[in-house]
Amino acid sequence: MSNPSIFNKSDYRILGVLQADQCLTEISSYSIKQISEKTNLSIPKIRLVLKSFLLMNLVQEGAKDGISKTFYISEKGIGFLGVAMHGTNNENNEEE
């Protein structure tokens, strides 16, 4: 698994919101606007971070909401967030 320190706290807020709000499937997913409202981060910042998260398979693209793309946290993202927050892999404790 990659080193969690490559992201900053506001980046982790995105993963944290997706996990806390149970955005775990294509249907249970948030648009960039919804993530912005939940995290108080700018839309350009969220787009930039999501691009990195997608490349690392930490988030996946969900079903479109109208014309808006949506995103949800992957199993790998849940484990990555657990390592970053607690120094352990919580993937097995976060079963759907």
Concise overview:
The chain is built from four helices and three strands; from the N terminus they run αβααββα. It has helices spanning 9-20, 32-39, 43-55, 75-86, and strands at 30-31, 59-61, 70-73. A three-stranded antiparallel β-sheet has the order 1-3-2.
Question: Keywords, please?
Answer:
single chain; 9% strand; 96 residues; 4 helices; 3 strands; 47% helix; mainly alpha
What does this structure look like?
The protein is mainly α. The chain has four helices and three strands. The chain has helices at 9-20, 32-39, 43-55, 75-86, and strands at residues 30-31, 59-61, 70-73. Helix 1 crosses helix 4. The model is unreliable at 90-96 (pLDDT under 50).
Question: What separation lies between the terminal Cα atoms?
Answer: 22 Å
Radius of gyration (CA) equals 12 Å
How many strands, which pairing sense, and closed or not: the largest β-sheet?
3 strands, antiparallel
Rough outline: globular
What is the arithmetic mean of pLDDT? 88
Unreliable stretches covering 5 or more consecutive residues: 90-96
SS summary, helix count: 4
Looking across the biggest beta sheet, what order are the strands in?
1-3-2
Portion of residues in helices? 40-55%
How large a portion of the residues is in β-strands, by DSSP E?
A: 5-15%
How would you spell out the order of helices and strands?
HEHHEEH
How many extended strands? 3
Counting helices, strands and paired strands, the structural category is: mainly alpha
Question: Topology, please?
Answer:
Elements: H1 9-20, E1 30-31, H2 32-39, H3 43-55, E2 59-61, E3 70-73, H4 75-86
Antiparallel strand pairs: 1-3, 2-3
Helix pairs in contact: 1-4
